[in-house]
Fold this protein.
Amino acid sequence: MPTEDGKVLRICWLEYISIILCNFIGTLAASVLLFPSFISQNSSRLNHLNTQRFLIIFFIILIGNSGGLLSPLGDPPLYMGYTNGVEFLFTFKYLYKIFIVVNGYILFIFALIDFINVWFYQRKQKNNNDQSYELAPCKEKINDRYNLSSSLPIQWNGIHHIFFLLLILIVILFKGFNIPIKWSEYIQEIILFLITFVCICFDIIWKKQTPKEWLKNNYSTRIEPVAEVIIIFFGLLFTMSAPITILANLNLQFEPKHLFLFSGIFGSVLDNAPVYISFAASAAAQYNITVDQSNNNGFLAVFFSYYETDA
């Protein structure tokens, strides 16, 4: 396997680009979009090398968690903070250095482990040139359309969804920067709901006009995990208003290290979005302010930095 060393660096570059993409389409969308291609690109390595576990673990850490630090579009906790009045560029202002350092360290550790793994594999192959090994096949064959190294031409399927995605990004960005004027309350939510509704209608019409056999062979992305996340967040959004109000009025005295410790503990067990906004409300209460008044407060900047890198 002479190209393994180069493949390690290529994977690092792909993950770095994916991390940047997370800040525009979100960690969940980036994971759903990129994971099949990531597995396909490493399918031979998953068989030849003992890399299956740590490749997937690092993908989850980088793409599913720490990649969405820089904007409310990247991670649900940051978006909840944004909907509660935190400035759109607040996290970028305070987290871009942490973003570079944390992801740089993780990528370095990933590359180091992968190079060591490749070195052990090549050494073993060199010592056993005359022996043949039976490779364990993958349990499921990955669709060729995800294999970026194959000879299949690049194809765009579902191009209309990209149009709707761009509309959603534009609406959120315009609201974040108050373009062209300051937006009235709930206008953004109404527009996003309408865009989602039209997108779903297009999808239903497209599926009805498409043969079921073609859908079975090509429409392989499962909707169940995404639907589960949507249901969970609906429940969180409807139930978090009361705890946030209570915490904002308790006037609990927390230092940054306490916020770091307790938010990490709760964020590891519960979803990090409600934990984020709950502890933000507790921290803001110490200054007799609300979350939306905390944009220029140094203490909360420390809290946001601690929490997002911890959870």
Notes: Residues 132-140, 145-152 have pLDDT under 50 and may be disordered.
